[in-house]
Specification:
The protein is mostly helical. Helices cover about 45% and strands about 5% of the residues. The strands form two sheets. It has a three-stranded antiparallel beta sheet. A two-stranded antiparallel sheet has the order 4-5. The two termini are about 25 Å apart.
């Protein structure tokens, strides 16, 4: 519920049941700061994942907070690459009420940031015949509660869907924009443990 008494968790198009990604006081869902044990360090080096020098360099970068800074910037990208409700309605040439109706049934997707809905820009196209990617009502719940808007942004632009029977691959955005079946994207999500 935001400060105006609105609830977002019941809207099909809202990711993570209305979790507010702008709140910094919410507890993290994953533990941070655990140090690798000496046995784990040795395993990484013996397995060829790292040389001793690479591992020590990475460990020093983590100690200096560089990894945390990269993570913060990455998370910020997903929040910035979004539109306000007014901007999304203007982009689509519809009223705020019509946009809300699309969100209720999941035809557009949004996330909550600082008590306000933000609409990821990746879902909107420049095609007047199909201004929003299809299949979002099925896709949005597949991201589950753990997926940050930046993770979703990265997936939609970077996942490499290899389509059976072709030599081509597509990002989820490209695939949905050409009218591809959303089930292909859902299958990829499940197979790649994105859920």
């Amino acid at each position: 519920m935001n400060d105006r008494g609105l609830t977002f968790e019941s809207l099909v198009g809202v990711i993570a049941h209305g979790r507010d990604y702008g709140r910094v006081d919410e507890p993290q869902s994953d533990p941070r700061g655990r140090q690798a044990t000496p046995e784990e360090e040795e395993f990484l080096i013996r397995s060829g994942s790292f040389t001793r020098e690479q591992y020590e360099k990475s460990k020093a970068e983590v100690a200096r907070g560089e990894l945390d800074e990269i993570e913060r910037r990455t998370e910020l990208e997903g929040l910035i690459a979004s539109l306000t409700a007014k901007e999304a309605a203007d982009w689509l040439g519809i009223s705020d009420a019509e946009l809300h109706a699309l969100l209720v049934v999941g035809e557009v997707t949004a996330f909550v940031c600082d008590g306000e809905l933000r609409y990821p820009a990746w879902q909107f196209t420049e095609d007047p015949a199909m201004p929003v990617l299809p299949g979002l009502a099925r896709l949005t719940p597949a991201w589950a509660d753990q997926k940050h808007p930046s993770t979703i942004l990265g997936f939609m632009y970077n996942a490499d869907l290899e389509i059976e029977g072709t030599d081509e691959s597509f990002t989820p955005i490209e695939w949905l924009a050409i009218g591809g079946d959303v089930q292909v994207v859902l299958d990829y999500l499940e197979a790649e443990s994105w859920r």
